[in-house]
């Protein structure tokens, strides 16, 4: 079982049973609102997460993530939650620019 800790959501912990699902799907399964302007299709970067620990536990970059990385749309410590599937424990946070106004964050 993998765990996702969302640091700036007051340390919200999600236990992952199904490793075939994306971070964004796990967020929604656990009633966590997360920005995703394109509907989770990898066509924008609004669902990005800052990966603070465990980048190696998100597998390889998807084709859209590779494209955004090459165009400086994703930093080396960022991934798209709609494209990344956790295979081990990770610690992430929501970037300031994409925080939702109706969600209380802890930073």
UniProtKB/TrEMBL annotation:
Please name the InterPro entries in this protein's record. Answer: 2Fe-2S_ferredoxin-like_sf (IPR036010), 2Fe-2S_ferredoxin-type (IPR001041), Beta-grasp_dom_sf (IPR012675)
Q: Which CDD domains match?
A: fer2
- Domain spans labelled 2Fe-2S ferredoxin-type: 1-98
Superkingdom per UniProt: Bacteria
Pfam families per record:
Fer2
Indicate the segments annotated as coiled coil, or none if absent: none
Protein name, per record: (2Fe-2S)-binding protein
- Record organism: Chryseosolibacter indicus
